[in-house]
Amino acid sequence: LRCWSNIPFITVPLSRAHGKSFAHRSELKHAKRIVVKLGSAVVTRGDECGLALGRLASIVEQVSVLQNQGREMMIVTSGAVAFGKQRLRHEILLSQSVRQALHSGQSQLKDMAIPVLEARACAAAGQSGLMALYEAMFTQYSICAAQILVTNLDFHDEQKRRNLNGTLHELLRMNIVPIINTNDAVVPPPEPNSDLQGVNVISVKDNDSLAARLAVEMKTDLLIVLSDVEGLFDNPPGSDDAKLIDIFYPGDQQSVTFGTKSRVGMGGMEAKVKAALWALQGGTSVVIANGTHPKISGHVITDIVEGKKVGTFFSEVKPAGPTVEQQAEMARAGGRTLAALQPEQRAEIIYRLADLLTDQREEILLANKKDLEEAENKGRLALPLLKRLSLSTSKLNSLAIGLRQIAASSQDSVGRVIRRTRIAKDLDLEQVTVPIGVLLVIFESRPDCLPQVSALAIASGNGLLLKGGKEAAHSNQILHHLTQEALSIHGVRDAVQLVNTREEVEDLCRLDKLIDLIIPRGSSQLVRNIQKAAKGIPVMGHSEGICHVYVDTDASVEKVTRIIRDSKCEYPAACNALETLLIHRDLLRTPLFDQIIDMLRVEQVKIHAGPKFASYLTFSPSEVKSLRTEYGDLECCLEVVDSVQEAVEHIHKYGSSHTDVIITENEKTAEFFLQHVDSACVFWNASTRFSDGYRFGLGAEVGISTSRIHARGPVGIEGLLTTKWLLRGDNHVVSDFSEHGSMKYLHESLPLPQRNAN
């Protein structure tokens, strides 16, 4: 027996055995039977007279999509009163205008007062029209709908309950969408209220309770409650401290302050929470979300079913650790403390982490072995990704060396003065470097990325959220533990957080109030997905690594094959590996060209002929499908150009602005190439593989950026800093600098303080 005040019909014993609700949002995609409850604020227009037809059509479309996927959909709807109010007002106005015209004989009518409309009369006038509208909309998707009107009394009678249950099951069996509503035409009148300016509306609380009751009665998997707020907040929405609660657990009511009721109806969020908790106890998962926001209402229902982070999800399973929002807040607080440390203290943390990588190598390699075995057993990773996943003693030693380079170079990174200006007498301005804030780094298959990125975040004083691939879970766990152990020596353990919850990458990309910069490390598809999903958060990275090597007529025979072999074959899965080889036309059918082809064959590199190269051959290799292809394997495109200018034009047209190389002994040609190619990295007589933070002497990199602003190329400590302005004055005001003021602007450049010699 479950009951509480104001919802009397729920005191009837349940006929359904206690079930298990979904523990995580990601499981909602398995929901088979779903109830969608539409609040009055969702269904009615802003003027509270008539229906919001656009929203209603969108909701019907989403319900139809889910129904046609084989799910069993039910709708608990409000709106009959609003629809009836619109019709009755129209009838009253028409009737009054006719009477007044007959009585006065005048063509111009005076202002007419509309009498107070009783809610039950409005419902009686509106129910048939509302149902006809639903039927017309569902017919567009070849779906039949059926109306069921209920009252609280129907749930007190056991026979009526059985009849209702049987009717609903039969409708669902026939693939019909039941449209359920309280029979507002016969319910007892609610307490008077002024929400609709004199028009009494059936309490929203009744439909919330009805939806919860039906969801449990019908053993529903999911109840979606749509209202005019984003979900449940810890304080009334709109207040300064209000934060949307992502997941609400039974027993959390004390942490919530409920505000006023919604725009339409008598109910409020408190009634929705009570109904949601009751449904949850009955085994039905619940999500409360906004069904009125124009940017999300068109896909809010389908997004919820797909497991996206929309609204507030009610769950009985409380996670052992903090939520990702809490982790982001911890990272921000920890990052600010980290930035306030002395440079020597931040360097000491990084040196300690470098030592731990070598001291604890056996434990690290053991965890990595587990990841490799699981990946091989499941067969879900390609060979290049398995190589990225693998750690070794030499890799750990290289990591430690790189971390020590970061520590040594980070002494004056944060708080460095980069500009000083004397604005006026005793008014000095400084521009100083500061951390960006909270970084979110998402990486695949590369556990060695974790200590690299952590060290760069520590050196730059940034808070850090890490989201690694599940294929490297064991490796990431121990590496993060060692990172926090190093941070603990100065009490900033929380500055680096590893996200272990079932957060989808797309959901993380929506945390624009908690995260300042996203850095993806992985496949071009991952980067593209993140760039598409990020809402209001800048993304630093590159979606593709289409790197070119151009072989000029004046190229050295000895250098050509070495540079091409290293660029393509040393690590073909890397983003800085050669993908397109450009050959000057005059080199065709020369010994140098033959040497290049022979070397590629020996290295088992599959060649795809560009259209111009194919035109020179009677029998050519397979012609390339696209000149904008990143192979990531022992494959490359070979194309012919007539000059260095054409090579530059080709790179600009088909490249990704990552890394491009010229091989030539002609300094003038090389300088033309270096100055005109608009890529993040442009090399002369050097392998594309040098495009790397460690090889550039940055110690490590958080990624390679091809964007045009902030940071470009391999991004080290400098790319994780921004600036702020510090102005020191003495009772200065702008009015003193006016035409008749007593002060003049000087704008004198001042010398910068000496940088740390170490």
TrEMBL record:
It is found in: Mitochondrion matrix. Keywords: Amino-acid biosynthesis, ATP-binding, Kinase, Mitochondrion, Multifunctional enzyme, NADP, Nucleotide-binding, Oxidoreductase, Proline biosynthesis, Transferase. Its main location: mitochondrion. Its EC number is 1.2.1.41, 2.7.2.11. It comes from the Eukaryota. InterPro entries: AceGlu_kinase-like_sf, Ald_DH/histidinol_DH, Ald_DH_C, Ald_DH_N, Aldehyde_DH_dom, Asp/Glu/Uridylate_kinase, G-glutamylP_reductase_CS, G5K_ProBA. Can form homodimers/multimers. HAMAP family: ProA, ProB. This is Delta-1-pyrroline-5-carboxylate synthase.
